Amino acid sequence: MATAVVTTERENYINSEYGIRSWLLTTDHKRIALLYLLSITFFFFIGGFFALLIRLELLTPAGDLVQADTYNKLFTMHGQIMVFFFLIPSIPAVLGNFLVPMMIGAKDLAFPRINLLSWYLYIFGGCMMLHCIVTGGVDTGWTFYTPFSTAFTNTKVIEAGLSIFIVGFSSILTGLNFVVSIHRMRAPGLTWSRLPLFLWSIYATSIIFLLGTPVLAITLLLLIFERAFHLGIFDPTRGGDPLLFQHLFWFYSHPAVYIMILPAMGVVSEIIPCFSRKRVFGYSFVAMSSIAIAVFGFLVWAHHMFVAGISLYSALFFSILSYLVAVPSAVKVFNWTATMYKGSISFSTPMLYALGFIGLFTIGGLTGLFLAALGFDVHVTDTYFVIAHFHYIMVGGAVMGYLGGLHFWWPKISGRMYPEAWGRLAAAIVFIGFNLTFFPQFILGYMGMPRRYWQYPPEFQVLNVFSTAGSTILAVGYLLPMIYMLWSLRYGKIAGDNPWGAAGLEWKTASPPPTFNFDETPEVTWEAYNYDEIPMPEEVSLER
Amino acid sequence: MSDSLIALEHPTELQHHFADMEQQKSTSTFGMWLFLGTEIMFFGGMFAAYLIYRRWYYNEFALGSRSINIWLGTINTMVLICSSLTVALGVRAAQMGKRKLLVTLLLITMVFGVAFLGIKGVEWYQKYEEHHVPGSSFNASDLVSVGQKYGVHINQAHSQIYFSLYFALTGLHALHMVVGLGIFTVLTYFAWKGKYTPEYHTPIEIGGLYWHFVDIVWIYLFPLLYLIDRKPFH
User: Fold this and answer.
1) Is residue A417, in this structure, part of any structural domain at all?
2) Smallest Cβ distance to A229: which of B19, B30, B134?
3) What is the per-residue pLDDT across A167-192, written as a single tens digit (0 to 9) for each?
4) A184 vs B23: CB contact, 8 Å cut-off?
5) Inter-chain CB proximity A213 and B135 less than 8 Å
6) Residue B183 lies in a domain
7) Which chain A residue shows the shortest CA-CA distance from B164?
8) pLDDT confidence of B9, banded at 50, 70, 90?
């Protein structure tokens, strides 16, 4: 019986070759996506572990669980791992790698070997970061601000900086691969105006990878030189300018926020039309707003420095430009809502994550407008208000989008369905846990609790207890998908080629796809999101 | 279908995921152009730092610039321009399928590249002997006394910033040259093996693009670092 099943199973990218070599030396974009999935999940749980330790320390007003120095290291490593080793590669390197060639109807990315190289760079940088952590870690905050990082701290700044420098090249190469592939490898008939919105988002993200990451690279290199040889470039006692470091750092690191959120927006733009059974409302506006976010993203970096001593005029300028980012972001939110209007909506797990994304991203985005206002920003700079704001974007936005996308494309990736009831439960737990963790932090910050302290006055304790309780719920919400997705690999219901009745080329091939994605190069004769022409599968419609 | 027809449809240099040679070539070339775009941003961060400190510490930058051997810099500029010419001629030789000429031109290019690095090494060694290498043994008292001669005050810490940028910029440029030499070694080997034909020589063109880019970076570095102000002070 078992052999009969094996022989009837179609050859696909997973069973085409066996053995560790066939994975470590693969140039198949789908296998590389899975390598990334494993590695970033590993780093996600390490970063999450640090987050839980931070929340445990903050359960009580006294600094009792860890020493102050250890606490500094905890939030630094949490930030660096989550930003550089999880959030930035998350959707692009996993879902992007898996989907970009299939969505454009190609056999692979433009440069398959460079794609594998970028995974090895990621792993090399990652191992260096791990080595740095176990041999002492860094305590500068993820931002490496000078002159503390170059002249004062005695922790391992150079090693951490080098590891992020290396992992940066992994993102540059991934972005380069995506841009070139989307330009040059589209299937016949797949015009720019027929591209899935996920690809527009990935394209905009890749532009930021290409233009921003090299600046981070040179900044880290200068930081490393400065620390090793005491050059004085960022040292005010030698005529250097620490603000220059902040300018260079945020020139990349602000757009990096859009690296995290844009791909999640792309995922949401795929999920919402599918589970509303409607064409996306205002396709070209949603597409162009991705490009607009990438462009504006490069013009707002100094809003991280309003109290750092920049001139009032440049602060005004950056404040106004920061408001402008709200326009394309709002265009997206309104268009998603309009897509759902009068749609026939089913609340499957991916849709729950997408809806969660819209709500949480809206809160994160609107509080971003508070922070763009100079007066208010001065009041809440370096408080938990800022922490709550960017976690609503990065966790409430980017991670929700990532999980939504992982569920949406899981049948395509694995060929199996995850258990729907567990999926919905986990989505609800994540949503509740997230809000319980981070909403109190808005209030704490507004009341004046500063970030990066391991002690606080007793009157802040109630809200901190809420936050810590929420973080444990959130942890359960993140563990659940990992467990039931692994379970589904063996016991999940076999997924058809297109279990959601979704539009898009990736659903027109087998699940899991064959190594070269399509048996023959597809020719696109339809517009994107032609949901008025595709019937919804019965199982999905029952879930309404 | 006969064997020859299959070979015609799928030349050996064509990778499996491309439809035809034309697509493969335009994809690879586009990839290199984008990569060079990222390189501009990479050097751009340091050019930004240069711009700011040159404006703040003009005297230190001008005197630092004078202390560098202008002859070595000028010769190196000419060496690199000549190497760009031999690369361009090499691409032409590849297009025309002249294997021996291609190998010769690639080798000459590499000789120019090595010469550049050698001259650069001499220049750096001079700076080392003058204690102008940033770090614990940095000493710009010679520049301070030159400044006194012209009546301008020279702050040694600020001079160190100039030399830091000088070494960072020329060092990263030299690193790119080393990478270029590595690429050209591989290209020369395959050219010698006769891999490149008038139909397929994209690697030569792409390698050439990289080489030209590294040359162009030097064309900017030379005036910015060597020619800030060579007139006597008034």
Assistant:
1) yes
2) B134
3) 999 999 999 999 999 999 999 999 99
4) yes
5) no
6) yes
7) A231
8) low
CA distance A233 to B144: 20
Residue A106: pLDDT above 80?
yes
Q: Is residue A265 part of a domain?
A: yes
Judge whether B10 lies within some domain: no
Task: Kindly state whether B16 is in contact with chain A, defined as any CB-CB distance less than 8 angstroms.
Answer: yes
- CB < 8 Å to A111, chain B: 31
| A225 lies within 8 A of chain B by CB | yes
pLDDT at B1 over 50: no
Report yes or no: B29 at the A interface, CB cutoff 8 Å.
Answer: no
Q: Identify whether B59 is part of a domain.
A: yes
CA distance B88 to B208: 7
Using a CB-CB distance cutoff of 8 angstroms, which residues of chain A are in contact with residue B168? 221-222, 225
Degrees (nearest 5) of the Cα angle A201, A203, A208? 95
Residue A26 maps to a domain = no
Instruction: Tell me which residue range forms the domain holding A311.
Output: 32-542
Domain for residue A2, yes or no? no
Domain count within chain A: 1
Higher pLDDT, A535 or A3: A535
pLDDT band at B13; cut points 50, 70, 90: confident
**Helices vs. strands in chain A: H and E counts, helices first:** 19, 0
Closest-CA residue of B relative to A173 is B35
Instruction: Give A433-443 pLDDT, tens digit per residue.
Output: 999 999 999 99
Q: Which of B37, B57, B168 sits opposite A210 (nearest CB)?
A: B37
The predicted structure's pLDDT at residue A542:
57
* DSSP H helical ranges for B57-155: 58-67, 70-95, 99-129, 141-150
Q: Residue-wise over B94-109: b if at least 16 C-beta within 10 A, else e? A: bbeeebebbbbbbbbb
Question: Is residue B25 in some structural domain?
Answer: yes
How many domains does chain B fold into?
Answer: 1
Pick among B10, B17, B132 to test the A interface (most A CBs inside 10 A): B17
List, for residues A352-364, the tens digit of each pLDDT value.
999 999 999 999 9
Domain range for B203 = 21-226
- In this prediction, residue B223 has a pLDDT band, given cuts at 50, 70 and 90, of very high
Indicate the residue type of A358.
I
For residue B45, list chain A residues with Cβ-Cβ distance below 8 A.
214-215, 218-219, 222, 248, 251
Does B154 lie at the interface with A, CB-CB under 8 angstroms?
Answer: no
**What is the nearest CA distance from B120 to chain A, expressed in angstroms?**
20
Query: Cβ separation of A110 and B26 shorter than 8 Å?
Result: no
Return the number of other C-beta atoms located less than 10 Å from residue A511's C-beta: 23
Band of residue A538 on the pLDDT scale cut at 50, 70, 90: confident
Round to the nearest angstrom and report the end-to-end CA distance of chain B: 83
User: Which residues in chain B are closer than 8 Å to A229, comparing Cβ atoms?
Assistant: 134-135, 164
Q: What is the DSSP string of B50-75?
A: HHHHHHHTHHHHHHHHHHS-HHHHHH
- ipTM score here? 0.91
Closest CA to A452 of A6, A89, A58, A126: A58
Contacts of A110 in chain B (CB under 8 A): 27, 31
Q: Are A233 and B161 in contact (CB < 8 Å)?
A: yes
What is the average per-residue pLDDT within A259-273? 97
Tell me which residue in B18, B30, B157 faces A183 most closely, judged by beta carbons: B30
CATH number, domain containing residue B203: 1.20.120.80
Task: Kindly state the average pLDDT of the residues A253-277.
Answer: 96
The CATH number covering residue A221 comes to 1.20.210.10
Cβ atoms of A37 and A538 closer than 8 Å: no
Contacts of residues B18-21 at CB distance under 8 Å and 24 or more positions apart, as own/partner, are: B18/A185, B19/A521, B21/B199, B21/B200
